[in-house]
């Protein structure tokens, strides 16, 4: 199983921003650098299915911006930068001057985490709690292996959807509905 590595020396946000690309996916968690191997093909395919559906819907309904593989500054002290696989920001969360050069300095309205072999339940739970504490209104944890999605609206409002269910956008993406069978469709198009 691929290994997640945590670097124990605390980093400032500025030090983290200057790190070179070393082939890992990096996040800054309470000042600590957390590295995991790049995800594989199924992860990419499922994240791509979600991105395309969300992006198309958000654009058709002028709701905001769908991002992928970008950093969100969830906390300054200690510094925490998370990079959901897919995220949605409503126009209200996007600065009037447009996107930042660096990390988004707000939590996304929706954060999507697609599980990889290197993820542990504890690490994913930690991410979910950080997103919710920072103001994310909806978190989807997508498991390609079990073909389930766990939907978090708060710490106490948690639902598991299975392959016969559909994802809903709630008040974050009003009217959005995507059958999980389409999320987990791995056939070439």
Written account of the structure:
With 189 residues, the protein is an alpha+beta fold. Helices cover 23% and strands 33% of the residues. The protein contains 4 helices and 13 strands. The protein has helices at 13-17, 41-60, 121-134, 180-183; strands spanning 5-10, 24-29, 32-37, 64-68, 72-76, 79-82, 86-90, 110-114, 138-143, 148-152, 158-161, 166-168, 177-179. The strands form 4 sheets. A 6-stranded mixed β-sheet has the order 4-7-8-9-10-11, sandwiched between helices. The chain has a 3-stranded antiparallel β-sheet with strand order 1-3-2, with no helix packed on it. A two-stranded antiparallel sheet has the order 5-6. A hairpin with a 5-residue loop joins strand 10 and strand 11. It is globular, with a radius of gyration of 16 Å. The model has no long low-confidence stretch (mean pLDDT 92).
Present the secondary structure layout:
Blueprint: E1 5-10, H1 13-17, E2 24-29, E3 32-37, H2 41-60, E4 64-68, E5 72-76, E6 79-82, E7 86-90, E8 110-114, H3 121-134, E9 138-143, E10 148-152, E11 158-161, E12 166-168, E13 177-179, H4 180-183
- Can you give the helix content as a percent range? 10-25%
Give the low-pLDDT segments.
none
Termini separation comes to 30 Å
The radius of gyration computed from the alpha-carbon positions, rounded to a whole number of angstroms, is 16 Å
Report the major sheet.
6 strands, mixed
Our count of helices gives: 4
Q: Order the strands across the largest sheet as they lie in space.
A: 4-7-8-9-10-11
